[in-house]
Structure formats: C-alpha cells, structure tokens
Design a protein that fits this description.
This protein has 176 residues and is an all-alpha fold. The protein has one domain (6-173). Helices cover 84% and strands 0% of the residues. It starts with 5 loop residues before the first helix and ends with a helix.
Length: 176
C-alpha cells in the first residue's frame, strides 16, 4: 500500500501513544503487563491496521475500546468523558504542531527534520495540555463545580477543535 510509509507508522505510534498517555496521566491509572498487552494487541494493532482503509474514522475504534477499558478499570462513567476530552486536546495540539512545523518552519528544507520537529511540538503540547487539564479538573472537582460546567467546557473545546482543524485544512488547501 502507498499509505504505509515510515512517516505514517511513526505518526500513528506517537499519536496513539500520546492519547493513551493523556488518559492514563489524567486519571492516575496504572496498567499491568497483561493490560499493556491487551492495549497493544486489542487497541493499537487493529487501529493501526484499519487506519489505511477507514482513515481518521478508525480512531473511533481506538477511543471506544480505550473508554471501555478505562471504565472497567475505574468503574466511573465520568472517566469516559476524559478520554474524549483527551482526544480534543490532542487534536488541538496536533493542529498547532502542524501549523508551527509545516507553516512557520517550512524553510528547514529537510523532510525528516520537519517530521522530528512536528513530533517534538506534538509531544510538548500534549504534555502541557495533560498537565493543565489534570490541574484544572482537580481544582473544579474540589470546588464541586466540575459536573455543572463539564458540558459547557467540552462544547467549547469541541468548537475550538473544529476551528483549529478548519484553519489547518484551509491552509493546506490554499497552500499558504
């Protein structure tokens, strides 16, 4: 297949790993070796295999299985929302990284150097968003306002994600 390139494989590994890290860090989860094998063989590999055929829609499989695993681990329905919030934050981080790397630093000239800088920005933004999200969620839970405002926060972040994606798509379409 033409889709299975080194860049695709590296991007899938980094992005899927960051999504798992984000949810694990925010929810303070500890995975056993058996659970890591389940994550590898039930979540990572099937998602990686179906991505060339279904494209971005394949992330729904990844999210649904990860949400089920997190629910089975914590028995808290609200933690499923954190998985979807992790996706929203990582999409925002992905788009910011993409804009920084391929728009601002496009003059680097080396394709692999651009890819490395993209991974660097993506990981840094993912870590920053995970840290800030965890602090904000803990603060809001301690104030007992988290459950009242969670729908408003998720709607706002969903809109922000769509805006970042639109900006990125328009920049690619107009080749600016």
């Amino acid at each position: 297949m033409d889709v299975l390139t080194i860049e695709f494989i590296l991007m899938a590994i980094v992005q899927f790993s960051m999504l798992l890290f984000f949810a694990t860090y925010v929810l303070d989860l500890y995975w056993s070796k058996k659970q890591f094998l389940i994550i590898l063989f039930v979540i990572f590999l099937p998602t990686f295999i179906i991505t060339p055929f279904f494209g971005p829609i394949s992330i729904l499989y990844y999210l649904s299985v990860l949400a089920i695993m997190i629910y089975r681990e914590t028995k808290v329905v609200m933690n499923i929302l954190h998985v979807f919030m992790a996706l929203i934050f990582l999409v925002i981080g992905d788009n910011i990284s993409n804009i920084l790397t391929f728009r601002l630093f496009n003059g680097i000239g080396n394709e692999y150097l651009s890819l490395i800088s993209y991974f660097f920005f993506f990981i840094v933004f993912g870590l920053i968003f995970a840290f800030c999200y965890k602090k904000i969620v803990k603060y809001l839970i301690s104030r007992l306002v988290f459950y009242n405002f969670v729908s408003y926060i998720s709607v706002f972040l969903g809109i922000a994600t769509v805006i970042f994606m639109y900006i990125n798509i328009m920049a690619i379409d107009h080749d600016n």
